[in-house]
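User: Can you predict the 3D structure of Redoxin domain-containing protein? Sequence below.
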Amino acid sequence: MKKLLLVLLLIGPSVFSQQNLQDRTFFSEALFNHLSDYNKKADLAYRFNQYDIAKELFEDFTNNHLEGSYMDNFKFHNLKKKEVQLYDYSKPVFLITYASWCVPSKGEVPALNELASQFKEKIDFVILFWDKREKAKELAEQFSSDISIVYVDETENNGAYVVRQLKHSLGLPTCFLLSDDKKIMEIRRSVFPYLNTEAETAYRENYIALETSISKNLINQYEEVYAENISLE
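Assistant: Sure. Here are the predicted structure tokens for Redoxin domain-containing protein:
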């Protein structure tokens, strides 16, 4: 009996971890199962300029079918041309996608910079550009050094899978809030204040919306895991 218990203690963690991985539903799988139906309904709504319905469809799709799945270990490149994997980031991840032809909303950049400075010890902030390295490097200058800038250059024809999954499926800009084990806690669109909104007001609108999502979905989760690790030591 003692020998059996010893064997279970030795092999148990690896077996259970493999089972946990097998039980996970990944983002790519959830997309495969539900994206087609969402696209049909959303395309119809946009065709008739039913933007409120299109927004509801997006929220229903992400809330009920994508959130709770686990983000795949996608690969990008940093500005030094080094390949970076999503799972290289060990903390919870705030991931947002941009491109040179799809600029951040008014007030969004200063809000992101402030949040990255505030939460950098607990969260990895990552901005993914769908652009060539030169353009991504140019665009990166407006962001804080606390934010990790990565890019996928479609012209190189070596990122088709990540482009199809993260860009063409949900469009951009899209924000993903991921726990430390890369579970999708929330998917959200950027805040777009009215064009005539004053800069300070636009900044506050973005900051409040993003800080609320971060505190609700990432900070509490991080602090719970940190507390558990401390209690085990």
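DSSP finds seven helices and seven strands in the chain. The longest helix spans residues 199-232.
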